[in-house]
Design a protein that fits this description.
The protein is mostly helical and 120 residues long. 51% of the residues lie in helices and 12% in strands.
Length: 120
């Protein structure tokens, strides 16, 4: 049995801006942590390459702000898409509703076009 198979927390080594960090996580979080570290490393390198920010802590803050901004923008877009889909679903539901049956419809007044009662 693999030690990570029993649900124990295992240390994972990640590398961000050429510095290694050991993070404890469960086996089900291992791949997500590594993917997150890669994305953070990439974003921090982009901030550093822009050349205006010096210091790992400031680079980390700017990268974090950029990631949160992107996340919020995605959240807003998903919310807008959900609203559009709900509106379309409501329109489709109304469009495919069967028309009311004659016996269910309220009786209407005669329209005056009954030829049997008209005299010429």
């Amino acid at each position: 049995m693999n030690p990570s198979d029993d649900g124990r927390v295992m240390p994972v080594t990640i590398r961000i801006l050429d510095k290694e960090y050991r993070i404890a996580c469960g086996p089900e979080e291992h791949h997500g942590l590594i993917d997150s570290a890669r994305l953070l490393d990439q974003r921090m390198r982009e901030v550093r390459q822009n050349g205006r920010i010096i210091g790992a802590d400031r680079i980390a803050v700017m990268a974090a702000l950029n990631l949160v901004y992107d996340l919020m923008r995605e959240r807003d877009e998903i919310s807008a898409q959900r609203d559009r889909l709900q509106m379309i679903q409501e329109r489709l539901s109304h469009a495919i509703e069967p028309p009311p049956r004659a016996e269910d419809a309220p009786a209407s007044e005669p329209s005056g076009l009954d030829a049997a009662n008209d005299k010429v």
